[in-house]
Every structure is written in C-alpha cells, then in structure tokens.
Specification:
The chain has 222 residues and is α/β, with parallel strands linked by helices. Helix content is 28%, strand content 26%. The chain is built from seven helices and twelve strands. The strands form three sheets. Strands 1, 4, 5, 6, 7, 10, 11 and 12 form an eight-stranded mixed sheet that branches. A two-stranded antiparallel sheet has the order 2-3. A two-stranded antiparallel sheet has the order 8-9. Bound molecules: cytidine-5'-triphosphate and magnesium ion (MG).
Length: 222
Amino acid sequence: MSVWAVLAAAGRGERLGSDRPKAFARLGGRPLLAESLERLEESGWIDAIVIAAPPDWEEPSILVAEEIAATKVSSAVTGGASRSESVRLALEEVPAEAAVVLVHDAARPLLPEEVIERVLAPLSEGWDGVVPAVPLADTVKRVEGDRVVETLSREDLGAVQTPQAFRADALRRAVSGDVSSATDCASLVESQGGRIKVVEGDPRLLKVTDAEDLALVESWLA
Ligand code: CTP
Ligand code: MG
C-alpha cells in the first residue's frame, strides 16, 4: 500500500502579514515549510510527497526540499485560489496506484509521527477518511448577527486539525466537484456520503495564523 502526502502550502498568509507567503515565513531560522516537510520526509509511513506551492514559489519549495535533503518530494505544483483547489491540483500529481493520501497544512509545522500513525491506521478498517480532533476549551454558541441562537453541547464538538488521511479514491471523488465552500478535505468526503473517523489530535498541531501563533510554535521547537 503506497501512501502519498499532499502538503498544502499555497496560501498567502494574509493574517500573518509577512512580506512573503506564510510557508516561507521564518521559523527557527528556516522557512516554516521546512518543519512539516522534514517530519513527513522522516515518517516511516509516508512514501512520497507533493507540495502545493504559492504561484512563483514552486522553485523555492523544491530548494527547501533540497536543503533538508528530502528524497520523497515528487513535485511542487502551483496551488489554487482556495485550499481545496490546491489539494485538487496536487492530487493530479499523485499516481493512480497510491492507495492512501495524507493531506497536511504547512501552517501546522509541528507534525508528530504518532498523529500520522493514528490517522492512517483506521483506513484498513473500512473508513474513507480519518481526522484528528482536540476538545474545545470554550463554550460554542450559534450566533446570528449579535444574537445567540443556540448553545451547542461542547461534548459533541471537536476542533479538527490536519493531517487528515483518506482512501485515495474517496478523496479524488470528493475534490472533483464544487469545493468552494469547504474548509477541510474531510467535509468534502462527508458530503459525498463518506465515513470519517475521529481520532485524538495534538495541541502541538496548532495552526499558525498570526504572528503570536508563530512565536508560540517557535517557543515549542526543541
Ligand atoms: N492553503 C493552500 N492554498 C490556498 C489557501 C491555503 O494550500 N489557496 C493552505 C495554506 O498554505 C495553509 C493551509 O492551507 O497551509 C491552511 O490555510 P490558512 O491557515 O488559511 O493559510 P493562508 O490561507 O495562507 O492564510 P490567510 O488565510 O491568513 O491568508
Ligand atoms: Mg486562508
């Protein structure tokens, strides 16, 4: 069974406000992208990697791969206008014989090997996809304008992270339709009737959104 990873790194990083795309912001003295790429490279579970890069940053992405002596990076493709489109474009570079695809956000640099293992294992039990989630600390309410409509039961909710693992055929089918409203790949597979399992996430998988997040993740680097 061959497992391919798609690293979604094509975002602009507007909320981080750097002079370059978020994947190339500095983290521990190197581009942020290097951290998750190195962890995918070193994972015993991953056979090959496709990077979805921001327009004009395909070549620099390959250079990052070369700098960490990555041997699994197959290509860096130009990403799309949304995350889901970037994943769809990267999937075009994943060969038909790949049975499983792991999709990860470059914006989550600290990727523990245990989580990769945790999301891949249940695919052999008949699940179409597996997502890591962490419990919510805050109470969540549905809001219309400035009015609370409903308070949701926190026990029923989870904050979903990446890496997300999928049967390749299920993911390909899911991203081939209208992906404009999706914020993660699992929701696309769900809307096709796919069965998604939830496993335990990891607080270290914090997504770098703004400068404060970047400083926090930097402080966690060993
Ligand atoms: N992403 C992508 N292609 C896009 C948009 C986002 O590959 N067109 C990726 C980002 O590179 C990131 C992940 O999806 O790794 C999650 O997106 P987000 O945190 O929103 O990153 P950005 O879109 O870069 O940030 P912002 O929304 O602040 O511009
Ligand atoms: Mg974004």
